[in-house]
Each structure stands twice: as structure tokens, then as C-alpha cells.
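Hi U.,

Before I forget, here's the chain from the pilot set. I'm dumping it here mostly so it's searchable later in email.
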Amino acid sequence: MNTHRVDRKRRAPRVLAALALVAGAAAVALPMTGTSAAPPAPVTGPSNLATPGPTTGHPHAGTGSGGHGAVGQTFTAPSTGKVTSVSIVAAEHDDAPRIPSAGLTVSIHEVKYNGEPSTLLAGATIPTGTLAPTPTTQAVSFSSPAVVFAGRQYAIVLSTGGTCCYGWYGSSASYAGGDDWVQNGGAWSNLAAGDGNPDRLFSVDITKGFVDTIFGDTLVDADVNDNPYNTQIWGGGSVYAGAGVNSTRAALDMGLNWFPSGHLRALGSIKGDLNVQAASVWAGGRNVRLGSYSHVTGDVYSCGTPGDVVLDHNQRVDGQVRYQGVLRTPDSSAPFGWSLGNTVDAPCGGPADESMPAYAPIAGDYAGWTTITFNNAKIANTCLAQRTAAACNGIAPSSVVGALGFPSATQSAGLRIRVTSGCGTPVTLGPGNVPIAGHVHIVTGCQILVPFQTGITAAGPGNHQVVLQTSRSTGNRDISILGQLGSSAPEVSLLFHAATGEFATSGHMDIAGGGGAIYANRVRFYGNTRIMRSSSLINNTPTAFTFS
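Structure:
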């Protein structure tokens, strides 16, 4: 095992100061390709539009006549959520030969370890002839929002498929949360402060939402996943584990064959036994330990005390490996090789302490919904199994025979089943096929049980959210999946919520149809698990759930 301590070669990521849109910096609504018709609700995020003084500088996006292949500005996300829109100060040239031949694409990207834009997260196109020839603040909305995580840098990129030119304007003041970039011939260059190229003028709207596939909170013991295997998390889904910083026990303790397409983040340590595949790894605890055959396409950060990174043979990290303690890699004589991007031995901060979404219904949350209340879990289970008015206190649980929920294009209608007492028996959904025709919330203080071989299917058009929420807090299978849970319907998203309890499986679970999310104090997997991140949950926060 080799031990490395590398002098810092690169400046630390700059911390974003709290900024706000200046009064009067109005956003202009545009008809755009790939954007939503209505602007998003009021939100907050990083902004450089409040800088006083006239606009200056305008690197051109567009090939030819002095233009660049693309122009970028990086920013630091102050909170985890979805980027619903951005605003820029831009202009479209109307003088030959700089009249653009194609629309302007505005996109959000992840960044590499050196800060340059990389993977596309979201984008929308402004048609030609839309922008004014003078610098004007323009708002761009994304129909499919980009998911961002607190404390990480991302990039806004302007590009066009045609010839020159669009200008993106800057200001005389510098923005502390990122840098401006230009791309020529496919290569990005960082335009550092002081070279006459100011940071671009922009603002980013970030709405907090259901962005993590698996979220373990910090209330009791937030170890996530004891010895699971073959866990697949697709669609950019990520894993967050909140545990005491510098905890000697790994906050995110993975088994073998983990395939999250997104990010692994923990306030404590992160440990993976074998074949962990992830976009990035970021720990605030003692160390990061990744077993053989692991591949991280982005960065690996170990920012606790001591902050070691321990890697095994046949590993690959494409981005930066940043650590505060030591970097341990296999001996050069190991039979299998390993590959790292660049390495930095320097202080760093751990991931943000995220808040678990709280379930706190208030008057009006369920306006228009059908609510059926039971004071005994056994009676509730008869309703859930038979799904008829006769079995459900005389109230039909659906307008579709044999189903749960009421078809609706919005959240203005749905079915809420409340079980307030009589918890000697778990509230049970399944077994067999459970047709879902609309939004369904099952809310209780009892244990929730999904029996062996339960299938969740769609029984009507539109996207449906199924929420299983319990306030039970025994820490022992408060939500229990007994195995072979399947949901292949793209119209149905599943959300499991046990804020003070445990979510646990006993066998295979596959919710890769409409996707889903797990929020619990403790999460444990046994057997193969496949989860698709749910765009329905991301874009439409379920009724009565809020982020602090």
C-alpha cells in the first residue's frame, strides 16, 4: 500500500455568499423550445445580477467572426434542489456578418475537478430573433430541471449550432462562487479575474425538492445499507447519509455491486466493499474507502478528520481525489492497476447537512382529496385488499373498479388513507397486483408492510404518486418490504417516508418504472435492489411534504 501526500496545486472552491436578485432586474418571459409555458414559483439561488454599474464585456457564443464555440459561467449551489430557470444578460447581434443562423441554447452542466463544464444536466433553446440587439435580462425555464447539490459547483453554458453571434454580458465586479469560461476547438479555458473578462451576469433559481433517491437522516443511527449487493440506482439518483461527523462507523456502508448513476454523500465516512460505480463521492467523516473494481467518473472528496482516502486495486477515479489526511493506493507491484485524475492534499469542507423533508399536513393540504380514516389496521387492510366501498367504511377508494386513487392531471384529487390506531397488525399493501389510478397517500403511526410478491401497476392515465408514510420510530422495520416488490409502470412513482424509523427490505425490490425515493432515519437493503430516480417526485413535491 502506497501513502501519498501531495502539495495543493489548485485553489479551493470558493464559498458562495448569500446574494439576491436586485429589485428591478426583471425577468422577461420568452417563447422557448423545451421550456414550460408558465414561470416557476418564486425561489432563491445564486445571482450576479445585483452588481452595480454598467454591463461590460460580452464574449460571443457562435462560431466565426470572433465567436467562441461556447461561453460558460460556473456557480456554487447554496442548497440541494432543482434548477428550474436561469436569467442572463445577453444580446443577439443584428449586424452582418454576426447575425446568428441558429437559436441560442442555455444549459446547465456539471463541472470537472478543474472547474470546466462537463456533463449536460438541463437545457432550453431561445429561437433566433427573440433576443434584443442590446443587453437585456432574459429568463430561461427548463421543462426538465437540473438537480444540484449544496456546496457543489455547476456551470451555465451558452452555445449555438449556427454561426456567430450572441453576446453574454458581464459586470465590473467579480462573482465569488465561480468563474467565466470560453470554449474554442472543443477545449475550455478559464478566464481568470483581472484579465479584462468579468464574470458573466446571471441568476439561478433553485427549488428545494425530492432530489435524492435514498436519504438517511441523523436522528438515531443513519448507517445506510448494511451489506447489500447488486444495488442499481439510475436516472441520476443519489444517496445521502447523515451521521455524526468523524463517526468511527461508516455512515454510508455499502456492500458489493453498487451502481448509483448519481452521487454518494455522507456527513460521516463512506465505505464500499467491491465494484462501486458513482458520479462522485463526498464524505465529511473519517475516510473514504472504496474496494476493488470501483469507478468514480467525477471527484472523490474526503473532508473529515483525518480525511483519508483508501483505494484498492483495479480502480479508476476520473476526477480529482481530494483529502485532508493521506491517500493510500495499492503497491506498484499489485497485479491489477489503478488510475486517478489529479490529487490534492488540502483542507476541504464536508457535504451540506441536508434536511429531511417533513410530513406536516395543514388545513387545505388535501383539499379535493377523498380521505378514509380507520382506527384499526386490520379494518384498513381489508379496504386495501378488497378496494371496494363496502370494505372502506362505505367510501369508494377509486373511480376505477378494483383500484386505489382517483385519476387527475394534478394533485387536486387523490386518496388519503389514515390509520390512527389499532397497530397490533401492520398496515399492509399487497400481496399480488395493486392497481393505482391516481395519487395515493397511506399515512399512519403503525408499521407498514409490503408482502412478498407485490406488484404496483397503473390503472389510469397520467402520473401517480404512491406515498407510504409512517411516524413509527422503533428503528426495526418501520417500513418493511418482504421481497419481490415490483413497479414497472412508468406512470407510478413510489415514496417511502419513515423520518424517525427504519426502512428495510428482505429480498429483491424493483421500482425502476416510474421511479421512487426512500427517506428514512435508517435504510437497510438485503438482496438485489433497483431504483429509478422519479421525475414525478422531483417536479411535483407530494402534498403535505416540505423542506425546511
